[in-house]
Amino acid sequence: MEVIELFKRLLSFPSVTPDDAGSLEFIADYLADFERLHFDKNGVKNLFLYKKFGEGEHLCFAGHVDVVPPGEGWQSDPFEPVEKDGYIYGRGAQDMKSGVAAFVQACKEAKDFNGTLSILLTSDEEGEAKWGTRYALEELARMHLLPDYAIVAEPTCEERFGDAIKIGRRGSINGVIEKIGKQGHAAYPEKAINPIHKVAQVLPKMAGVDLDEGDEFFAPSKFVITDIRAGMEVTNVTPGKLKMMFNVRNNTKTTMQDIERFVHRYFDGMNYTLQLSQSAKPFITDPKSKVVRLIDAAIQKVTGITPKHSTAGGTSDARFFAEHGVKTIEFGVRNDTIHAPNERTHKDEVVGLYEVFKEVIRSF
């Protein structure tokens, strides 16, 4: 089987989170000469395949087989891949069955490698991700099987295949502020404490504000308000409480404690509560590290392009590798149709990605 045939086969599995739809067993059988470990919990399936060629370092390719629901607006069955004008259409074509097909085929064809090659796949990246890669890595750590390096094949390219890799990701901190007031009649505002009026005074100093200056790798951490609600949708009653929700995609310069101090600076003296939770921590992989140098060289050799090093975008399972000290990067096809109707990727990109991964394995 060649990489495009494998890609189409993977697209045919209706693997909507957290259902792998049999795709993980198919991949395990396809790589029958790799040792296999299953880490399944709470309806989530995780597959770890590994093969020790020698005593050298351990390189892991990682990704997910689950996809978001297709939604409406498709011109063809989202789980019956269609090829048209060089593009292959199907849910998961970019995010990220192209990446999975590329590294599975590259690993299958690997003959010589001075170390251990492995693949970690989950069926719960698009969902809560609680029992997916995070859980599997905890089990691998317990078994002393963590890799030294990881390549997560998420779609990273922007305008042209090969133009960007991710060497880090911002974190994500969510917050909820509740400002307590005193409900009253709109005609007697002096007898009430209107939380809307109180919060309105500080909003210009908080909304959209940069919490740091950023650096050469990260944009500034920005305080983004996502929701404000209060009252009973009537015109003659002032509310007794206001709820404001926000998100900060933080770089390595801003912590939860910094955000707590920032909120308190403007809400000091008000009767309020603050809840903070961190769903992802920021990380950066040294651009001089082995995995970055090798992926850069492989992309240059295959495409003639020198990729930029990016940390933009949302979160991915790469963050879980970084938490274990694994030097991690992301590289995949373009990301212009991810999660959209008629998701597609050009077959030349899939072949190119496979060639890049083959070159990384060869030169490792």
Concise description?
With 364 residues, the protein is an alpha+beta fold. The chain folds into 2 domains: 3-169 and 282-363, Zn peptidases (Aminopeptidase, 3-Layer(aba) Sandwich), CATH 3.40.630; 172-280, Alpha-Beta Plaits. The protein has helices at residues 3-11, 23-30, 97-108, 133-142, 195-206, 256-267, 290-303, 318-323, 347-363, and strands spanning 35-38, 46-52, 58-64, 82-84, 87-89, 116-122, 149-152, 164-166, 168-169, 172-180, 184-185, 223-230, 237-238, 241-248, 272-280, 283-284, 308-310, 327-330, 344-346.
Portion of residues within helices: 25-40%
Order of helices and strands: HHEEEEEHEHEEEEEHEEEHEEHEHEEH
The radius of gyration computed from the alpha-carbon positions, rounded to a whole number of angstroms, is: 24 Å
**CATH architecture group name of the largest domain:** 3-Layer(aba) Sandwich
Quaternary organisation of the protein chains: single chain
Widest β-sheet, arrangement of strands: 1-2-6-3-7-18
Average pLDDT metric: 97
Explain this structure.
- The protein has helices at residues 3-11, 23-30, 97-108, 133-142, 195-206, 256-267, 290-303, 318-323, 347-363, and strands at 35-38, 46-52, 58-64, 82-84, 87-89, 116-122, 149-152, 164-166, 168-169, 172-180, 184-185, 223-230, 237-238, 241-248, 272-280, 283-284, 308-310, 327-330, 344-346.
- With 364 residues, it is of the alpha+beta class.
- The protein has two domains: 3-169 and 282-363, 3-Layer(aba) Sandwich (Aminopeptidase); 172-280, 2-Layer Sandwich (Alpha-Beta Plaits).
- The strands form six sheets. It has a six-stranded mixed β-sheet with strand order 1-2-6-3-7-18. Strands 12-14-10-15 form a four-stranded antiparallel β-sheet. It has a three-stranded antiparallel β-sheet with strand order 4-5-19.
- A hairpin with a 7-residue loop joins strand 1 and strand 2.
- It is elongated and about 80 Å long.
- It starts with a helix and ends with a helix.
